[in-house]
């Protein structure tokens, strides 16, 4: 009996899941198996039940802009935000000029100081994704539903999903990858099979000969208020200029503040949470007196630092030293900002390259 051709996809984040989605859409005759080290899918874009705040949360608030063609397909039309105001904490001025605050926006796109971002990444953002025209300017942000809205939908396209399966090593024979050694056992790679390694950069560097890149941090502070919170003009999303936080997102009784490209400091996150709550008070023009329950998370290896040096070290294609193994992941696309859209694009590139290699 002929063995069905299998695509072994290692990593169950956006890149790995998109690879399974694309295979099912374009090549329904092949079988896809996702191997994920963790207990859940989604990678850096997952949702979980937080016991402390007694609410379901996303790992971090994720924003998608309308110019992100792949990711925007998952967003409800009614949820697009057309006008994003910015408040300057020094002057107290409120405006909505994307152009004036382009450095602030670029920093968030790349989680890297705007001055340091590699020019080729900036160029790509400006050409492809920067919201110059009104429709592309629209933004969506995740409301504790990344799994429901994106992850579970994509996961439905995989033929098999193996959780708690951490790839430890690839064994080769005659120059080709022959076996995948997982924490849960070994998988043989058939002659016609292909492997897509869709891992974050640090995990990938432990498996393949790939340089571990420098990463930048992101801090998320989520406050759970007893009553619905309103920002100026009733906006659910506001950019903070010259403040400690960079963005504030409101979703019912949850208010999240993001600090992009967070530089570690002596100060404890609890003290920062208190200062930011005062900042939120100032934005709202109130004095709430006390800080509501909150959760502060520092994602240490949030995304790759997108300066020139790191960008040059990123791969320019999906190829690896094994002709039957291909890489995907947000960091694998040199000259692109590291985000969900790029993770998805990298998966399309990896599958296309793998298919051509046959
Ligand atoms: C705090 C934060 C905020 C962000 N904000 C935004 C945003 O607003 N908008 C946006 O578009 N993007 C944002 N991002 C970036 C976005 O989350 C990533 O670009 C995207 O999720 C990357 O997907 P990926 O599949 O490439 O990698 P990952 O999500 O890292 O997936 C890799 C998967 O591989 C698994 N794995 C690791 N090692 C192994 C192994 N040895 N064997 C098997 N499995 C393994 C991991 O568990 C993980 O599930 C943010 C990221 C963070 C951390």
Overview of this structure, please?
This protein is α/β, with parallel strands linked by helices and 358 residues long. It folds into two domains: 158 residues, FAD/NAD(P)-binding domain (3-Layer(bba) Sandwich); 187 residues, Polyamine Oxidase, Chain A, domain 2, CATH 3.90.660. 26% of the residues lie in helices and 27% in strands. It has nine helices and 19 strands. The strands form five sheets. Strands 7-6-15-16-17-14-18 form a seven-stranded mixed sheet. α1 packs across α9. The two termini are 21 Å apart. Flavin-adenine dinucleotide binds next to α1, β5, β14, β18 and α9. The site of flavin-adenine dinucleotide has 36 residues, from α1, β5, β14, β18 and α9.
Q: How many domain units?
A: 2
Bound molecules: flavin-adenine dinucleotide
The count of DSSP E runs of length 2 or more, i.e. the number of strands, is: 19
Assign a percent range to the helix content: 25-40%
Total helices: the number is: 9
Structural class: alpha/beta
Note the quaternary state here: single chain
DSSP strand (E) fraction?
25-35%
Largest sheet: 7 strands, mixed
Tell me the radius of gyration: 21 Å
What's the CATH class label of the largest domain? Alpha Beta
State the strand order across the main sheet.
7-6-15-16-17-14-18
CATH fold title of the largest domain: Polyamine Oxidase, Chain A, domain 2
**Helix and strand string, N-terminal first?**
EHEEEEHEEHHEHEEEEEHEEEEHEHEH
* Mean pLDDT rating: 94
Q: Examine the secondary-structure arrangement and name the CATH architecture of the largest domain.
A: Alpha-Beta Complex
Uncertain residue ranges: none
